[in-house]
Amino acid sequence: MAHTIPVLPFYKDKLKSDTDYWLSTSENVREALEEYGCFILEYNPVPIQLHNQVLSALKELFDLPTETKMKNRYEKPLNGYVGQIPEIPLHESLGIDNATTLQGIQFFTKTIWPAGNDHFSERVHEYAKFAEEIDQMITRMIFESYGVEKYYNDYIQSTTYLLRLLKNRAPKDDKPTLGFVTHTDKSFTTILHQSEVDALEIETRDGDRINVHLSLPSYFMVIAGDALMAWSNDRIWSPKHRVLMSGKIDRYSLGLFSFNNGVLQVPEELVDQDHPLLYKPFDHLGLLRFYRTPEGSKAQCPIKAYCGV
């Protein structure tokens, strides 16, 4: 039977805590993350103006000279400029750490445009706050659905967001070409949004690949990262995924990644006879550093190599 990634409608005016709609949506979110490690969130009403403005800002950014974009650097691993890599020549991306704060956006903007660029800052900050709102709603649903909502506030208070701005060029000869390597996200959760070009492939638990159709402005991809898989004691799946480009149009996308600044651990409520403890408490940012080591980069499952019992 062919797999299909679930599409879950989110009606903003109906999403009130403790309503039947909230509870049924939370259950659907948990089931999708347990089975596929991801789902497509269909947001209503469609934020079409924000969609158009932020994609326009991305095009402006990627039109800059490579030397300018390469100024995007942070001390945290995996946060800055990625590009000019022979194995993935179609890929280029930049990162904005603390993207949901004005300081984080302005630090990035001043690095790229020393004289400032207010309309870029405003558009990207507005998008980051919008995606943060979605992420925190989804995260609350996950915690509540497992009956561990008492831990939610502490988790959110120590969470920061990395916004990655991504471009995949169209391949020269129109043959399907790798846009980004197969990987799992190291985040707790990822919110992905894109232009009209579909290229994302998700791997299922049994190794099948699904081409994901995300080209509607109302569609946001929610992906569970390795940290969420560990926190859930393997109830939730962190799916492998890659980008495979074809056609003649460049793809632009944005990924908002949540990272916890503290130590994450499996809630005691998620450990029982059927689910023995699989992970020790772990430093989330330490996972990123581990992933950059030879051992971490070669591990079949980096999170299990890092903190598995």
Tell how many strands the DSSP assignment holds: 14
Total helical segments: 10
At CATH's second level, what is the architecture?
Sandwich
Q: Structural class given helices, strands, pairing?
A: alpha+beta
How would the global form be characterised?
A: globular
How can the largest sheet be summarized?
A: 8 strands, mixed
Detail the poorly predicted runs.
none
CATH topology (fold) name: Jelly Rolls
The strand order across the widest sheet is: 1-2-10-7-12-5-4-3
Offer a quick outline of the entry:
The chain is built from 10 helices and 14 strands. The chain has about 300 residues and is α+β, with helices and mostly antiparallel strands.
Q: How would you sum up this structure, described in words?
A:
- By secondary structure, the protein is of the alpha+beta class.
- It has a single domain, classed as Sandwich (Jelly Rolls).
- Helix content is 34%, strand content 25%.
- It contains 10 helices and 14 strands.
- An 8-stranded mixed beta sheet has the order 1-2-10-7-12-5-4-3. A 4-stranded antiparallel beta sheet has the order 6-11-8-9, with no helix packed on it.
- Strand 8 and strand 9 form a beta hairpin.
- Helix 1 packs across helix 5 (118-145), helix 2 (48-62) crosses helix 5 and helix 4 crosses helix 5 (118-145).
- The longest helix has 28 residues, at 118-145.
- It is globular and about 55 Å long.
- The mean pLDDT is 95.
